[in-house]
Amino acid sequence: MVSLNIDGKQLSVDKSCTIMDAASKLGITVPNLCHNPDLSTFGGCRLCLVEVEGNPRPLAACATLVQEGMQVKSSTPYLERLRSTNVELLLSDHPNDCMLCERAGNCKLQELAYYYGIRENRFEGTRRTYDKQDNNPFVSREMEKCVMCGQCVRICEEIQGARAIDFSYKGLWTKVTPPFEKDLDCEFCGQCVGVCPTGALTGKMWSNKGRQKFREVDTVCSYCGCGCNLTLAVKKNQIVRVYSRKNTINEGMLCAKGRFAYEFVHSPDRLSRPLIRVNPKSNWVLEDTHDSGGPGKQVQRSPALQDFKEVSWDEALEYIAFKIREIKESSGPDAIGGLSSARCTNEENYLFQKFIRAVIGTNNIDHCARY
Ligand code: SF4
Ligand code: SF4
Ligand code: SF4
């Protein structure tokens, strides 16, 4: 353990802690854009500079390990001036787009600009502008808004293990891109969107659906048995974004389905009542043999909605029981199989296999998540 003093408060922490970690234990927030406790140290934004007695220059709190007897100041007029200038420099190469940006109201750069009261900018020069639109289906990439915090690159490599993006080019033109500037073609987990502190990375489906004053609903993803925790951002009774939370089973991470595939919830095509197929033979049709001149051939087609009628749950369950009994009596229990779903709970899946084995009398039971 190492004892140190931050802003006049004494504490002891493990010697592997950084000054940033130690400050957070005291409830002291050191401004930053690139620090993420779940990722490796980056030390790129230079906003977390702190004064350490005996050091001629400020040190990056996120990248400096604590030492015995350290005397740290996290905020002084000099440090605040440095930080404000750094924010001003970032804004000097940043589009003035807060009015339309999907991240406005939830953007760390906007917050910092507000905190330091930066309305005018003393710095003028070349600005990055990019014309290319990324045609991937999920992640909107507006790289003019990137502050080079590297969180997306690190989370993609260190947590997702995909390494789908990295820094390219140099100096002012440094840019986070997929290989060879191609369209993003990755796992679309959206982890990068989740950590991006600005509007550089957002969800494409977020566009113009509302960006503030959401009703937040904590829930569990229904796509598979992992049980990832979700927070639904709801506006006018519509889900407009999906986030996740730290300190949950999934530690704030999600897969592409959990994060982006939520629009089905409001689809008018969703079934809301049981359907019974009224004409089971209607899925066989005569193939058009117009070109060959030969006789028509029977081919299978997907059943259409008109092949079904809506029934009550009682009617549907009675029909299923009748059919199962009929098949079992005429062909034996092994003529029946059960296919269960990852969207059910463990308990439901357990009951289903019990029903197939003990009630029907067959071991023909499988699950959609087993490839
Ligand atoms: S990324 Fe942040 S600062 Fe930049 S335009 Fe969007 S809201 Fe404004
Ligand atoms: S969506 Fe996931 S896999 Fe794709 S770049 Fe972002 S973090 Fe990497
Ligand atoms: S795209 Fe976002 S997360 Fe990635 S480096 Fe830029 S600002 Fe950081």
Q: In short, what is this structure?
A:
This protein is of the alpha+beta class.
Low-confidence stretches: none
How are the strands of the biggest sheet laid out side by side? 2-1-5-3-4
CATH topology of the largest domain: Alpha-Beta Plaits
Tell me the structural class.
alpha+beta
Give the termini separation.
50 Å
Q: Supply the number of helical segments.
A: 8
- The SSE order reads EEHEEEHHEHEEHEEEEHEEEEHEHE
Q: How many DSSP E strands? A: 18
Q: Proportion of β residues?
A: 15-25%
Query: CATH class of the largest domain, anyone?
Result: Alpha Beta
Bound molecules: iron/sulfur cluster
The largest pleated sheet is described as:
5 strands, mixed
What oligomeric state do these chains adopt?
Answer: single chain
Helix content: 10-25%
Number of separate domains: 4
Give Rg in angstroms. Answer: 29 Å
Question: How would you sum up this structure, described in words?
Answer:
The protein has 371 residues and is of the alpha+beta class. The protein has four domains: 2-75, Ubiquitin-like (UB roll); 125-266, Alpha-Beta Plaits (2-Layer Sandwich); 274-311, no CATH class; 313-371, no CATH class. The chain has eight helices and 18 strands. It has helices spanning 19-25, 77-91, 108-115, 151-159, 191-195, 256-260, 313-331, 346-360; strands at 2-6, 9-13, 49-52, 59-60, 70-73, 139-141, 166-168, 175-177, 201-203, 215-220, 229-235, 238-243, 275-277, 284-286, 298-300, 308-310, 338-340, 365-367. A five-stranded mixed sheet has the order 2-1-5-3-4, with helices on both faces. Strand 11 and strand 12 (238-243) form a beta hairpin. It binds iron/sulfur cluster (SF4) (3 copies). One iron/sulfur cluster (SF4) binds at residues 139, 155-156, 160, 162, 164-165, 184, 186-192. Residues 146-152, 176, 195-198, 200-201 line the site of one iron/sulfur cluster.
